[in-house]
Design a protein that fits this description.
mainly alpha, Cytochrome C Oxidase, Chain A, 77% helix, globular
Length: 414
Amino acid sequence: MEPPVYRPFALLAFAAALGVGTPLGIAMLAWLYLGAPALTTEALLLHAHVQVFGFFGALIPGVAPHLLARFTGRPLAASPVIAWLAAALAAALGLRVAGAWAGAPASSAVAATIQTVVYAVFALRVWRALDPPPLAPLRAHLALASTWLAAACLAEIVLRASALAAGRGVPDVAAMRAVHAVGLLGGVLGWVLGVLLRAGPMFVADWRVPRPLVRAVPALLGAGVVLVAAGETGGLAAGAALARGGETLAVLAAVLVVVAGGALRRSPLGALPMLSRSPEEARLFRLAAASTLAAFALFATATAMALSATQPHVVADAARHLLTVGVLTTVVAAMTFRLVPVLERRALPWPAGRPVALVALAAAVVLRTAETLVAAGAPALAPLVVLSGPLVWLALAAVAANLVVAVCRAPSRR
């Protein structure tokens, strides 16, 4: 019987997204487009951090033991270290929320320290677990992605310590954008692509990624992360172009994997060859694939705008949310719908949550991207951009409802 070690991580992740990250995002959209009260800088930073580290960054260490056990063929055993990691991440999230609420930035520095230790320990466990020689490329890829998460939190420690020493309290916003980019592109996207390179046949029929591309993906992600960090923090005249170019390069790695693996290839009958337990899950993966291509197009556009000395902020923001909502959140939703029945050994408690999540995410992706049209001279669309936030919340709630009910019910006798 496989112990459900993912449970505390998944519950923490969805609680963070539903209770903190997404509501702050809705408040930010209401401020920008409806004239609602402005958010503090610390609240804006908290929104970005919770979505990257509190949501995705909590799910990864929870699901990883189950995936690594399947990759290596070894049985999964519960470990006190795993429980400690979950408790530490919960404590770090609590410190951040309390610090932002009370205006105590030092608590976020303590939280970043806890997270650095958590992700460093996690990276070491990933390295040790994937020791069979045939898994060497995957071992390097996933250990590096885990290390990027630790490196991002370590960089935040330095930035917050410097800000506190200077009496500012809140660190430089551009530098914090680099921190979040390192965690998102190197850590979260790195993990998603690493798992997809290995487990792609679960989702796409006849999945094949050329071996040279498998080895090149970590380098592309790493180069993109370095360019973003240099562009945001280097004080260079071409800093914006470097940063947007780094984001474009990182997302290019995802595009190459999606295209080379065959996610867009059509069968003779004209249907995309997605394999899934339900049509909704297949459509969720198609939405993620389409969002990957759209995000790459917008990031490339933002890069071109920066090179021509045009401010690319709105286009880059739309591209980032295409990546976080259209790609990563959609993949999380599809994977949760798929893994809950496997790990809990029971059918989904509320199967109708799948079409709800699909429709809500698809609509949210379209409406959130409409901010580019608002900036281009269509202010009437502004309320629709704000509506994208509640739609994302609804989609996450549909997923979380299945998770919570499945976890709370007594184990099946079958």
